[in-house]
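Worked example

This section walks through a single chain of length 146. The input is the sequence exactly as stored; nothing has been trimmed or padded.
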Amino acid sequence: MSSTQDVNKNLVVRFNKEFVEEQNDSVYREIVAEGFVDHSGPPGGPTPFLFFTKIFRPAFPDAKVVIHDLVAEGDKVVAYKSYEGTHKGEFMGIPATGKSISFKVMEIIRLQDGKYIDHWAVADAMGLIHQLKGDSVAAPTEKPRP
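Given that input, the structure is written out below as C-alpha coordinates.
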Protein backbone atom coordinates (compact mmCIF):
# COMPACT_ATOMS: atom_id res chain seq x y z
CA MET A 1 0.00 0.00 0.00
CA SER A 2 1.27 3.45 -0.92
CA SER A 3 1.84 6.16 1.62
CA THR A 4 -0.09 9.43 1.44
CA GLN A 5 3.14 11.10 0.29
CA ASP A 6 3.51 8.65 -2.62
CA VAL A 7 -0.13 9.16 -3.62
CA ASN A 8 0.36 12.95 -3.50
CA LYS A 9 3.54 12.79 -5.58
CA ASN A 10 1.73 10.67 -8.17
CA LEU A 11 -1.06 13.28 -8.33
CA VAL A 12 1.50 16.03 -9.00
CA VAL A 13 3.04 13.96 -11.81
CA ARG A 14 -0.41 13.23 -13.22
CA PHE A 15 -1.40 16.92 -13.12
CA ASN A 16 1.74 17.93 -15.02
CA LYS A 17 1.61 15.13 -17.59
CA GLU A 18 -2.12 14.89 -18.24
CA PHE A 19 -3.30 18.49 -17.72
CA VAL A 20 -0.27 20.54 -18.76
CA GLU A 21 1.28 18.30 -21.45
CA GLU A 22 -1.67 16.32 -22.79
CA GLN A 23 -4.11 19.24 -22.36
CA ASN A 24 -6.73 17.06 -20.66
CA ASP A 25 -8.79 19.76 -18.93
CA SER A 26 -10.95 17.25 -17.04
CA VAL A 27 -7.87 16.30 -14.97
CA TYR A 28 -7.71 19.86 -13.63
CA ARG A 29 -11.34 19.70 -12.54
CA GLU A 30 -10.74 16.27 -10.99
CA ILE A 31 -7.55 17.09 -9.07
CA VAL A 32 -7.98 20.76 -8.07
CA ALA A 33 -10.32 21.39 -5.12
CA GLU A 34 -13.12 23.90 -5.42
CA GLY A 35 -11.62 26.17 -2.74
CA PHE A 36 -8.09 25.96 -4.25
CA VAL A 37 -5.83 28.96 -3.56
CA ASP A 38 -2.92 29.87 -5.85
CA HIS A 39 -0.58 31.96 -3.72
CA SER A 40 1.76 32.60 -6.67
CA GLY A 41 -0.37 34.62 -9.04
CA PRO A 42 -1.20 38.28 -8.76
CA PRO A 43 -4.44 39.09 -6.91
CA GLY A 44 -7.24 39.17 -9.45
CA GLY A 45 -4.99 37.55 -12.07
CA PRO A 46 -5.96 34.53 -14.13
CA THR A 47 -6.59 31.27 -12.33
CA PRO A 48 -4.06 28.54 -13.09
CA PHE A 49 -6.69 26.90 -15.33
CA LEU A 50 -7.14 30.08 -17.38
CA PHE A 51 -3.39 30.73 -17.43
CA PHE A 52 -2.64 27.32 -18.91
CA THR A 53 -5.61 27.09 -21.29
CA LYS A 54 -5.71 30.70 -22.57
CA ILE A 55 -2.14 32.02 -22.19
CA PHE A 56 0.47 29.27 -21.86
CA ARG A 57 -0.85 26.60 -24.27
CA PRO A 58 -1.46 28.97 -27.20
CA ALA A 59 2.08 30.30 -26.78
CA PHE A 60 3.75 26.90 -26.23
CA PRO A 61 1.42 24.26 -27.72
CA ASP A 62 4.08 21.53 -27.60
CA ALA A 63 5.06 22.20 -23.97
CA LYS A 64 6.55 19.36 -21.97
CA VAL A 65 7.17 19.20 -18.24
CA VAL A 66 10.40 17.63 -17.04
CA ILE A 67 10.17 16.78 -13.37
CA HIS A 68 13.68 16.79 -11.91
CA ASP A 69 12.74 16.04 -8.31
CA LEU A 70 9.74 15.56 -6.05
CA VAL A 71 9.89 15.65 -2.26
CA ALA A 72 6.86 14.97 -0.10
CA GLU A 73 6.32 15.54 3.59
CA GLY A 74 3.02 15.62 5.40
CA ASP A 75 0.40 17.07 3.06
CA LYS A 76 2.88 18.95 0.84
CA VAL A 77 4.81 18.06 -2.31
CA VAL A 78 7.75 20.15 -3.52
CA ALA A 79 8.43 19.86 -7.24
CA TYR A 80 11.53 21.03 -9.06
CA LYS A 81 10.72 20.99 -12.76
CA SER A 82 11.31 22.59 -16.14
CA TYR A 83 8.92 23.58 -18.87
CA GLU A 84 10.22 23.05 -22.39
CA GLY A 85 8.55 23.97 -25.65
CA THR A 86 8.49 26.05 -28.81
CA HIS A 87 7.26 29.65 -28.78
CA LYS A 88 4.53 29.46 -31.44
CA GLY A 89 2.10 32.11 -30.18
CA GLU A 90 2.09 35.44 -28.37
CA PHE A 91 3.23 35.31 -24.76
CA MET A 92 3.17 38.33 -22.44
CA GLY A 93 3.04 40.66 -25.43
CA ILE A 94 5.94 38.94 -27.21
CA PRO A 95 4.94 37.69 -30.67
CA ALA A 96 5.80 34.10 -31.62
CA THR A 97 9.52 33.64 -32.25
CA GLY A 98 9.71 29.94 -33.10
CA LYS A 99 12.44 29.61 -30.47
CA SER A 100 12.82 26.55 -28.26
CA ILE A 101 12.64 27.50 -24.60
CA SER A 102 13.29 25.88 -21.25
CA PHE A 103 12.74 27.44 -17.86
CA LYS A 104 12.77 26.11 -14.34
CA VAL A 105 10.04 26.21 -11.69
CA MET A 106 10.10 25.34 -8.01
CA GLU A 107 6.67 24.79 -6.50
CA ILE A 108 4.95 23.62 -3.35
CA ILE A 109 1.56 21.98 -3.59
CA ARG A 110 -0.58 21.23 -0.54
CA LEU A 111 -3.04 18.40 -1.05
CA GLN A 112 -5.99 17.11 0.92
CA ASP A 113 -8.13 14.08 0.09
CA GLY A 114 -6.41 13.68 -3.28
CA LYS A 115 -6.87 17.29 -4.39
CA TYR A 116 -4.72 20.41 -4.76
CA ILE A 117 -5.80 22.94 -2.13
CA ASP A 118 -2.84 25.38 -2.04
CA HIS A 119 -0.04 26.22 -4.47
CA TRP A 120 3.09 28.37 -4.24
CA ALA A 121 5.62 28.68 -7.07
CA VAL A 122 8.73 30.53 -8.16
CA ALA A 123 9.51 30.44 -11.87
CA ASP A 124 12.52 31.72 -13.78
CA ALA A 125 10.38 34.27 -15.63
CA MET A 126 13.38 36.51 -16.39
CA GLY A 127 15.21 33.58 -17.96
CA LEU A 128 12.18 32.82 -20.12
CA ILE A 129 11.79 36.45 -21.25
CA HIS A 130 15.52 36.57 -22.00
CA GLN A 131 15.19 33.47 -24.21
CA LEU A 132 12.20 34.94 -26.07
CA LYS A 133 13.54 38.44 -26.54
CA GLY A 134 17.21 37.58 -26.86
CA ASP A 135 18.06 40.52 -24.61
CA SER A 136 21.46 40.47 -23.05
CA VAL A 137 21.29 40.81 -19.34
CA ALA A 138 24.29 42.64 -18.00
CA ALA A 139 25.86 41.11 -14.93
CA PRO A 140 26.42 43.49 -12.06
CA THR A 141 29.94 44.81 -11.98
CA GLU A 142 31.91 44.07 -8.88
CA LYS A 143 33.67 46.96 -7.22
CA PRO A 144 37.33 46.42 -6.41
CA ARG A 145 38.01 45.78 -2.77
CA PRO A 146 40.12 48.39 -0.96
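What to look for: Residues 137-141 have pLDDT under 50 and may be disordered.
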